[in-house]
Amino acid sequence: MIDVALLSVIRRSHIREGQSIRSIARKTGLSRITVRKYLNNRNLDPSYPARKSPSKLDDYEKTLTCWLHREVKKHRKQRKSVKQLYQDLVQLGYTGSYDRVAAFARQWRQEQHEAKSTAAKRVYVPLTFAPGEAFQFDWGEDFATINGRKCCLQVAYFKLSNSRAFFLRAYYKQTHEMLFDAHNHAFRVFGGVPER
User: Fold this and answer.
1) What are 37-56's pLDDT values in tens digits?
2) How many other CB atoms are there within 10 angstroms of residue 104's CB atom?
3) Three-class SS of residue 45?
4) What is the pLDDT averaged over residues 20-36?
5) Is 24 within a domain?
6) Contact, 170 vs 152, CB < 8 A?
7) Which burial class, exposed, middle or buried, applies to 114 when counting CB atoms under 10 A from its CB (0-12, 13-18, 19+)?
8) Do 114 and 140 belong together in one domain?
């Protein structure tokens, strides 16, 4: 979207001065398609740059943001109200109005809510791990022939996430004792216990 000044240059050059689309495109640095689009669209509302008016709250925004983060972590009945936060700001020297503080708190809460709702869409599993950071464990079932008899074995699978080193240990049953024994042997072979 182009700004108001450039739009007025395009329209003035074409309507008042009678310049061609090609010469306007050359003068403004825009493509001919863009110039034609803005000349043909009569209902086009130009965009104004976003204005940031100075506020008395500007010097206290970081403090108020920290307080809001702190209050969100508390139980609902133990949280301070926005009016109490405003009174705390006044004690620090804030001379602005309560309405500005309330509007800031509302906007901050809305941004936090939007961030939470979109966070689930941006979740990813890291594919790189530090040495000793994580390991994976699972039980599996496999068949083996022992003394000429085919039997079903429960196999404990361990894999380090960084080096992909693995450890297997087979048992006849899948019990808590076997689970603890498998972990004990795996950590002994790996030379330590991963963080997670």
Assistant:
1) 888 876 666 666 677 788 88
2) 20
3) coil
4) 89
5) yes
6) no
7) exposed
8) no
Residue 64: the pLDDT is 92
What tokens were used for 71?
């209050």
Kindly report the CA angle at 95 between 89 and 97, in degrees rounded to 5? 85
Count of the separate structural domains present in the chain: 3
Is 47 among the domain residues? no
Helix (H), strand (E) at residue 137? strand 135-146
Mean pLDDT value across the chain: 87
**Structural domain span for residue 66:** 58-120
Per-residue pLDDT, 47? 61
What is the rounded CA–CA span in Å between residue 142 and residue 152? 6
* Domain match, 105 and 143 both: no
Task: Give the model's confidence band at 69: pLDDT under 50 very low, under 70 low, under 90 confident, else very high.
Answer: very high
Q: Is residue 170 part of a domain?
A: yes
The answer to whether residue 73 sits within a structural domain is yes
Per the CB < 8 A criterion, the answer to whether 26 and 10 are in contact is no
> Cβ neighbours of residue 119 under 8 Å, at least 6 residues apart?
none
